[in-house]
Amino acid sequence: MSKINRFLFFKLPSAYWSGVRVAELSANYAEVTVRHSWFNSNPFASIFWAVQGMAAELSSGVLVMNEIQRSGRKISMLVVQNKAIFSKKAKGKIRFSCEAEDRVRKAVEQTVATGEGVTFWLQSTGVDAANDTVSTFDFEWSIRLKHD
User: Fold this and answer.
1) What angle do helix axes 103-114 and 49-71 make, rounded to 10 degrees?
2) I need a labelling partner for 83 at 20 to 30 A (CA). Which of 25, 56, 123, 142 fits?
3) What is the band of 114 on the pLDDT scale with cuts at 50, 70, 90?
């Protein structure tokens, strides 16, 4: 995880300084945490919605990056659409988890096989220490094989 979190520091410094950290990563599951602090707070004494969005996006995006790296191919990735639902104030430590099943692997295989762009949705759910959902984010990812 330290390599990914070092990547955050250099490539996504606003997420890093807001306290967003990758806590767990496997082929089809990622967990990202963020703890409420003065730096990422909103006027309502909870984590600012954009910081929640960074953590949620990272929990899905790190799965896409991981699968692209596994493929050994040059593939671009981009969020083309997202939706969010906020159901409770985000206080304390929030865990954003994303379960990809085989969607990312299948999308990468398809774009490599066809050379065409592929889109797919991933959902990230943020829960607090009581395991109550604070927010749910859906991201539509687009991947495309890069042609040299």
Assistant:
1) 50
2) 25
3) very high
